Amino acid sequence: MSQTEHILNSLIAFLTEPDKTWSLVTVPFMFAFVAFFLVYILIGRERRTLMMGYVVLFSLFFAYKANGLLMLLLPATVLVSWWLTRQMHEREGRQRLWWMWATVVIDLLPLAYFKYTNFFIDIVNDVVRTNFAPLSLLLPIGISFYTFQAISYTVDVYKRKYTDEVSLLEYAFYLTFFPLIMAGPITRAGTLLPQLKQPAPVTDRSAYIGLWLIIVGMLKKLLIADYIAQYNNWIFEDPMAYSGFENLMGVLGYTLQIYCDFSGYSDLSIGIAALMGFQLKENFRYPYQSLNLGEFWHRWHISLSTWFRDYLYIPLGGNRRGTVRTYVNNFITMAVCGLWHGASWMFVFWGAMHGVGLMIHKASKRWLDRLPDHWTIRVASFVLTFTYVAVLWVFFRADSMHTAYKILDSILYDFSWDYFVPFVTRRTTWTIFLVLGYALHAMRERHVERIKEWFVSSPWTFKLIVLLVVLQLVVNFRQNSVQPFIYAQF
């Protein structure tokens, strides 16, 4: 076989074969994006129809690489949701309401089938003592995110919060936009679609901010999250093989890992969109700096927490129907949020306990507000909030209550500082990354903004050097393979 034939066969294989490792940080995607972006620049945003069609085709290719033929669910959702929403929009009164509910239910059916069928079978088996075998189902990557985007569009149109006419091509762009497919952020129609209808040229500032976010995202995901993940996995696979101190390090490691992993994806997603001239909303705002649980959920996965607030908590009554009902609505919302993360009682428990924490905070607020704004109170609030969040991450990550109990029991009853020096000596690089990750997270937002602005205004040669240094660091510290994005499984 000649070299030309080999290259041609490799290209055909790349275009036609799914790749289970496919994501925003894999080398094949990076090469594909560079080729895509060069053509995107040539087309320009001013030629709207051609630009949108081109991006939709690449987005469907992205979905195919990640999902194989299961990606057909995405264009099917586009067609069905768009058509049903148009039918709803043309109606008034009770008919409009019924069409809205029909659209929402139909949008949810694929998600319910692929994500919760086996969970339901397990419940039936436990309750009525049957032995139905679980189905062999693969969860399509990104289905939770694009389903929630479709629902938000339908409900916003129903409530007349979004009233602009949307063509099928525009809606396809909105629902398939490839930076958002795998793990969000969940983007509202009012954020993305107006930027399609009134396209503006990509500015140098937008592109440089995008490059900054991409660099930050790679540092978080490929350097910190992926490196510390291996040790964290050992702890959660067999906690009894390690001391209480080592288990605590695993919990602190996973608490940092999930933040760097998911916020790193959000940075990459928002950064790629910025390179293309689209401005997406911030999804994380230093959540571990929070002084209470309510503040944490205003800073963590903002697009999801506001989605549940607007489309579940408020429709349930929010805080408009008395104190008890407010607490119940909080609890239900967080329990459903937990279930959204995965078909497991561990996720439900994680969400429910966040609901309990929010209820306690709301019930105590009038007493808490009387406390002086003193640094000791702020430190105590931070420690309590961080500890509660980190402990609940144990239940989020553990495969069973038994495993979570063993980890926490080991930390409480088998903890000794005697392990500190041997641990740091043996896992020096891991410890440095852990300390570095938390130290960077502890920076003031205004300081980070200054660094970003300094980067944006710096010469392009300096930007290139920073990018190359980051890539070299990633190569030097990479593990055997890129760890899958944690939130891609949801």
Distinctive features:
490 residues; mainly alpha
What does this structure look like?
The chain has 490 residues and is mainly α. The chain is built from 21 helices and no strands. Helix 5 runs antiparallel to helix 6 and helix 10 (204-237) crosses helix 20. The chain is globular and about 65 Å long. The two termini are 43 Å apart. The model has no long low-confidence stretch (mean pLDDT 91).
Mean pLDDT: 91
- Approximate shape: globular
Q: Enumerate the spans where pLDDT stays under 50 for 5 or more consecutive residues.
A: none
Class computed from helices, strands and strand pairing: mainly alpha
Biggest pleated-sheet summary: none
What pattern of helices and strands is seen along the backbone? Answer: HHHHHHHHHHHHHHHHHHHHH
Task: Please report which band the strand proportion falls in: under 5%, 5-15%, 15-25%, 25-35%, 35-45% or over 45%.
Answer: under 5%
The proportion of residues forming helix, as a percent range, comes to over 70%
Distance between the termini: 43 Å
Number of helices: 21
Q: What value does the Rg take, in angstroms?
A: 24 Å
